[in-house]
Structures are given as structure tokens and as C-alpha cells.
Amino acid sequence: MNRTGRMVFFLISVAGFFAIYLWALRGLSPFGHYPGPYGDVLNKVAVYERHATDVVTAVNFDYRGFDTLGEEFILFISVIGATLLLRRQKSETEDGDQEDESPNRTAPAPSDATRALTLALIGPMVLFGLYIVCHGQLTPGGGFQGGVILATAPLLVYLAGDFESFKKITSHTLVEAAEAAGAGGYLLIGFIGMILGTFYLRNVFALGKTGEVNSSGTIAAISIATGLEVAAGFVLLLYGFLEQTLEIRLGGGKGGGKK
Amino acid sequence: MSGTYLVPLPVVVPLSVAAILAGLNKFFPRRLADIFAMAATFATGAISLELAFLSRVQPIVYWFGGWTPRAGVALGISFAIDPIGASFAALVSLLVLAALIFSLRYFDSVGTLYHVLMLVFLGAMCGFCLTGDLFNLFVFFELMSASAFALCGYKIEEPESLQGSLNFAITNTVGAFLVLTGIALLYGRTGALNMAQIGRSLGTHADGLVITAFVFIMSGFFIKAAVFPFHFWLADAHAVAPTPVCVLFSGVMVELGLYAVIRVYWAIIDGPFASHRPDLRALLLVVGTITALLGGIMCFGQRHIKRLLAFSTVSHMGLMVIGFALLKPEALAGLALYVVGHGLVKGALFIIAGILLHRLGTVDELELHGRAKDMPISSTIFLIAGLGLAGLPPFGTFLGESQVEHSAGALGFGWVSIVFFIAALLTAGAVFRVWAHVYRGWGDVRGAEKSGSKKIHDKRETRKGQPRPFEMHFAAGVLVALAIAVGLIPGLKHEAKTAALLMQDRAAYQARVLDHAWVPVAQANEPHESEMASLARSTAAAVLAFAFGIFAVSRFWPKKSVVSRPVDVLISILRKPHSGHVGDYVAFLTFGVAAFGIVLAVLIVR
Amino acid sequence: MMHFMSFFPYAIAAWLFVMGLYGIVTSRNFVHLIICLAVLQSSTYVVLLSIGYRWGGVPPVFAGPPVGTPAVDPIVQALMLTDIVVEATVVALLLALAVQLHKHTQKLNPDELEALEG
């Protein structure tokens, strides 16, 4: 279809779509009046049952922990998929060193201010990420949020230096193994429940005292496994994309990755 | 309860092995990865089959984390296993195993990444079949989709592959968000995510929210199921995906989209819709018929064998939607049997196409003309699989088809048989035409280049090797043999009907899941035995499809005459929307959702 | 009948979905299209969170306020976390496909890709 035809066809259809969507939304309870039982029941019981003050994390890693297992694997498989899709092809490895397309220009090195700031931030960033991961059961946070923060630490190294430095601190094999270990760790913790005779993903660790970091049983453990997996996954993603699209900034400037 | 410990395994086993393979990626030799993957798949299939048997006696309800419901409020996620769901999981495992056997020696695997993707794909589909929680269904749907996108774009050297995968990924992701919106709407009304609980809380009145939520969920899953007008992505994806992946897409992945609609309808929506069944039936019969006929016509006009088979899948999905549309247990039983038979036969057909690609480097029908005359085994399997596609007794497809047609006749929709016949004629006829062209060298293909679809260039996906690889032929042969065997199992029709009744019994489902009640499984009355009439009819249909295919390669096929001119015009009009442009696809998608919504709203609210 | 202000957040969700669809259908660049897909998804965030909101409710974290204080719904927030992860990963996959497509064909405009017609 040509553009105009498609646009007209679409505009008529989407008007109908918008209409039925609005019609459906009118059937909801008014904004600000949440009616349903599920959330209220969990708000009441989660703290007592699991000694976790953050109910969202308790829901994520305990009540609906199986969903989060699936979600973690979605991240896992998407990273694997992206790695697969961005892989070195046969034609690329045979080309060898690319011709330097602009021999008299080098990419500017990062400024001193950038380097100072980013290098200074790496330590606090890692610490903050670990803090968020470990305190998921107490305050908003948990494996996913903390994992993403942890994954920005190598990115800061890249910003301060170049792709070579990024590659130096992230060993591809190790990060791949870490990602699989995180995913496998989640599965394993679920198995512990089965081995002990109850259901898969049952919270069987000691629950500890509410309000302390060492509480809520498997929730904390799963949070850490998830943090590991998310951090490793995002580092792998960064690795794949950076390798593809950015020029490698060395002293003499080497054009690479693009044709 | 016996077998309880088996329940999470069909999901957890493939995912665990995938994690291990991914972690030790660099250290795993190819052979070992193959063995691990096949062992995990075999174990998953065996466990699923065992669960199917156990759930015949009493459907199994399993609460993850031990969170059993309190006062009718479900706190955790449940798996609610019934024979139909578990049998589909077993079918999925079988097809994944066939795909892995196909790729055993020659498929170009990148480290262990291919195996990881296949295993996660398997685990996701099994979870999809077994779950009893609506959001869990969505999560497994997304997991299934993510692995499918990556597997589809596997051949990154070909730009068509990337475009096909992008079309596939974008349309299916819009579908997934439609499903999520529908789930959010239902959650807003009932405050629950467990299917049984939503069903109980939804009441019996179908108002705007319920109708639209169902339309969104149904449309989102129909995108995956490649039903008109959401089917455009399927041919693009199949043309470019590697063969073992096509086996899975056409064999089980699209059928699972329909399975989800059926599950959601019978567990949740039938409450409010019980008095509106004739309206839904009318809409879905129309949609199914259009899909079946459109798929058949497009199928016949293709020259790329994988695209041809993809359109035949679209056509057969239309037939399956008709089976669901009747909303009767006998039709649902027939549909389940048809899914099994079709999956096995379609898988075998794709594997044969893969053998052609491996040996001759192309799957273009015109290019392959006469070049496969010295492949007798493939030729035989291809021919038999084509007969299975046409619904020849005793294939599983015939078993399912006869049940659906009988149910349709009982409801007064006798014309359904004609639709089945035309679809078989077109799709199986196309397969037979390919057989005649490629394996026999009949017919004259000069001049055919100018009309018809464009040529798509294929690259090899396997290393050059033995021209008659045992593994590939073995996989295809076993699938076809099983397709015949399924039709011969005694008492299978009765089992299927009992299972269908079970799936449709909303009250019992809710009692078992939420109240931990033991509700006896109602046995079906004896299903209608295939009369000589339907046996004769289906045999005649298959023979006629064969004749049609051969006629298409003979010199009597009208090429330039007056008769074929308007047909050509019709076909080119139908081809226009299949443009490969994702904007067109999403425009049609929007049209489909809006049309479904407005039609249902008008029918129900008046 | 809902008061307009009670309905407005829901309407925003519908509008975002429609905008995302419009962007996808009329897009001339695959990267732009993928971001429109992300916009479409953000409509699901809005609808989920709007459903779970409660006037005067505290966040469902009881480290400070005692259990029993009216709080907003934690379930939709958990669902949203899953949703965000799904979006991020699907966008990553799609962008990887787009990067490879550009590398091979130097084109990113859906209008210009004609390999899969018919």
C-alpha cells in the first residue's frame, strides 16, 4: 500500500480502536479507588509472613516468584539473542584490520573533567548498586534495580577511557558465566524447596528479624542472584553493541566496525 | 498427591540445562551440547506425557512457593494441568526433539547458543501450556517470543532474514502489549490474576470492559496464531528462519496462540459470554473461514517452499479457529486431535524442505525443478506428509477434521465441510504440485518466472556434508509415522472428548483450583464414530487434492486463457497487502482489533 | 458515570497506545519505529499503575508506617517491574536486528526494503 492509503486505512481503524479502548476504561473503578482484594490482602500479611517490609519485593520474589523467574529468563535469553544477532560474521573476521578511513583524524580522547568525574563515581556506583540489591526486602529496590546500577560501572570505565579499557575489565567469558550463574542460581534456590519436600520456590531459609538486612529468607538470596544476572546481562549487551557501532579509540585512531 | 513433584519440571528442566550450557559456553564441545539438549528435551516430553496421563484421573493443581489460596483469594501462581495442556506440552517436546535431531550434525551452531535458545523456547512453551495464572501466561508468552525472535533472525548474513525477523518481532510485540492491556483491564475489574479467580469474580454480565478485554486478549493471541488479519508476519518469518525453527513455529508456536484463546475463553470469559455464544460463534466462523481460504489461495501462489508451507499453516489455523468457533466439546476434541496431527505432518514437511536446502542449496520450487529425482526417501515422506495435510484417513488430521465437521453439521453449519475441502485442495494441492515439480520433474516451468511471487535468495544453513543425512530423514520419517499412528490409537476420540469437556467445565475448574476440591471427571458419552460417509469423503478429498496438484503441473493448467485472467487479478489483489512492510501489517492489525471489538460490541449489546 | 478527572489517567493510557501505533505505522526509520514501540508499551505502565492507585495511600513499604496503613496496590508495581524488563530486552533484540540490517543494506527505511513482497 502506498503511504497515503495506509495512513487513511490506519486512521479509520485506530479511531475505532481508541473508541473501544475508552469504552472499556469506563468500566474500571474511578482513578484512586483501588477495589481489588489481591493487593490489600498482601499488604496486610506480607510483613508478618515473610518479615519483609517492602511488599513489592516480597511479591516479586516470593508470592509471585515464578513469574520473576520467567522474567529473569526473558532478560537472559534476550541478552543471549542479542549476542547471537550481533556476533562476528565470517566476512568480518576475514577482513582483518580495517582500512583507516580518516588517517589524519583521531577521535578526541575524553576530557580530563570527564575522566575525573567518572573514575571517581565508579566506586560509589558499585557500592550503591550492592546496597540496593541487598536492601530489596526492606526498601524499594532489589535485584533488578541494583543490577542495572551495577552494570553502569563498566560503562563509566568506558566513558572515562575507551572500548579497550572496557574490554580489559570485563572478561567476556567470565561475565557470560556470571549471567548463567545468576539465572541458574534462581532455579537452584527454587529446587531447594522441592528437595526439602515442599513446593518449588518455597521460602525455606530462616526468616530473621523484620527490618534487618539478613531477613526474609530466600527473598534476599533470590535478590542477589537476580542482581548478579541483571548486571552481567547488561554488561554483555553493552559489550555487544559497543563492539558493533563505536570506533575503537586508540592513540592513532583506528576506524573499525563500520564499513 | 502422586506426580506433584513432576509438575514444575517441564519448565525447570529445560531452563536449568540451558543455563548450564550458556554458562559453560566456551567449554562445551558440540556433541556434548547436542546430547544434553536432546536428553533434556526427551525428559521434558516424557514428564509431560506422564502428567497428561495423571491429569486424566484428576487435573493437577500446583501452587508455586506453597501459596495456596485463602478464602478464595489466590495469593500465588498456580499450574492447573489438564490432559489437553499436558498433551500439547508433550507435542512441543516431540517437535523440539525432531528439530534438534535435524540439526545434529550439520547445522551451523554458534557455540552452544543455538541449543540454549531452543531449550528456553521449549521451557517457555511448556510453561505456557500448563499455567493457570493469567500474568504467568503473559510472562511465558514473552519468553517464548523473545527466544523466537532471536531464533528467527539467526541467519544474520541475509538482509531478508533481518527484515523478516523485524516484521515478526514488531507485530508480535504489539500483540503482547495488547494481551497485557487486556489482563490489566480484567485485573482492574476483579482484582485477581489467577484464571479461576477471575472467572469466579467476573460475574455473568458482559459489559464494555469485559468485551474489550476479551477482544484485546484474543487479538493479541491471534496475532501469534496468524489468523486473518494478523497473519502477515508468518510468511515473512518462515521464509527466512532456519529449518528447525520453522518446524517449531508452524508445528506448535502458532497453535499455542489459539490454545491461549481457548483457555482464556473457557476458564474466564464463558461466564459473561454464556448467553452470547452464538454471536461469538458467528464472528469466529467468519474469521476462520476467511483465514482458511485466504491462506489457501496465497499458499498456492508461492514458489518459495517454506513460504508456501507457511501460508498453508495460516490456512490450517483458519480451520482450527473454525473448530474453536463452534464452542462445543466435540469440536474442541477434534481441534485438539487436528493440532497434533497437523503439527507432526507440518514438521515433517519442513524437515524435508530443510533436506532440500541442505542438499541442493535452495528451496525455490522453480529452481528445484526436476533436481531431486534421485531422493526417493524424501520424495516418499513428502508425498505421505502431503496426504496427511489433506486429511486422508487414518492420519490424525482426519480424526480431528471429522469430529469438527460432524459437530458443525449438528449445529447446522454443514458448509464447514466445504471450507475444509477447499483448504485441503489448495494447501495439499500446492504440496503435491511441489512434489511433482521437484521430485518428479513433471511440468514445464519456462515462463513461470514472470508471474508469481518474487524469488527469495536462500543461503545454506548447514555445513556441506553427506547428501543423505540419516538424522534428517529419520526425524521426518518418525514424525510422519507418528501422525499416522495418532489416528490409529483406539479410544483416542473418547479421551479427547472427555478432555475437551474437562477444559470447558468452568465451575469444576474453579472448584479444583480455588477450593482444593475433588470434583470427579465427567466422562464423555461415546463420540460419533466415523461413518463410512466421512471416511469416503476425506479419502476423496485427499485424492482430489492430489489430482489438483498434478493438474497444476500438467499442460492443461490454464496459463493465459480467459479463465485465468480474473483469477490472476484476484490473486494480485490479495498479494498487495502482503508487502513485507511492517507499517502495513500493523495497520491491518489495528483494523482487526477495532473490527473485532466493534462487531462484538454491536452483537452483544444490542 | 465517572468524573472526568477520575477518568483522565486512563484516557492517557489509551492515547499513548494510539500514538505508539501511529508512530509504528507511519515510521520511516526502524530505530524510530522501535522507540514508538516503547511508547506503546508505556501505555501499559500507565494503565496498570492507574488501576492500582489509591488516594492518600502510602507506598507499599512498611519500614516506616505500620502495617494496616492504607497503601497502594503492590501487585501492579510488581507487574510493572516485569513489564519494564520485558520492554528493555525486546527493545535490545530489535535494535540488534536494526543494527545488522543497516550494516548489510545501508537502509533503515521500511518503505525501501522490498525483499519480502508477496
In words, what does this structure look like?
- The complex is a heterotrimer of chains A (259), B (606) and C (118).
- Chain A has one domain.
- Helices cover 67% and strands 0% of the residues of chain A.
- Chain A is built from ten helices and no strands.
- Chain B has a two-stranded antiparallel sheet.
- Chain B is globular, with a radius of gyration of 23 Å.
- Chain C has 118 residues and is mainly alpha-helical.
- Chain C has a single domain (4-112), classed as Helix Hairpins (Orthogonal Bundle).
- Chain C contains three helices and no strands.
- In chain C, helix 1 (4-26) runs antiparallel to helix 2 and helix 2 (30-52) packs antiparallel against helix 3 (74-105).
- Chain C is elongated, with a radius of gyration of 20 Å.
- The model of chain C has no long low-confidence stretch (mean pLDDT 88).
- Classes of the chains: A mainly alpha (259), B mainly alpha (606), C mainly alpha (118).
- At the A-B interface, helix 1, helix 2, helix 4 and helix 9 of A face helix 1, helix 4, helix 5, helix 6 and helix 8 of B.
Main sheet attributes: strand count, strand direction, barrel closure of chain A? none
Quick one: overall form of chain A?
globular
| Overall 3D shape of chain C | elongated
Q: Specify Rg of chain C, calculated over alpha carbons.
A: 20 Å
* Oligomeric category: heterotrimer
Query: Beta-sheet strand percentage of chain C?
Result: under 5%
Largest sheet of chain C: none
CATH architecture level-2 label of chain C: Orthogonal Bundle
Helix content estimate of chain C: 55-70%
Uncertain parts of chain C? none
**Distance between the ends of chain A:** 33 Å
**Largest interface, and how many residues on either side?**
A-B, 70 and 83 residues
Helix content of chain A: 55-70%
Structural class by SSE content of chain A: mainly alpha
Question: Spans of chain A of 5+ residues with little confidence (pLDDT < 50)?
Answer: 247-259
SS summary, helix count of chain C? 3
Number of DSSP E strands of chain C: 0
Give the SSE order of chain C as H and E letters.
Answer: HHH
DSSP helix count of chain A?
10
**Overall number of domains of chain A:** 1
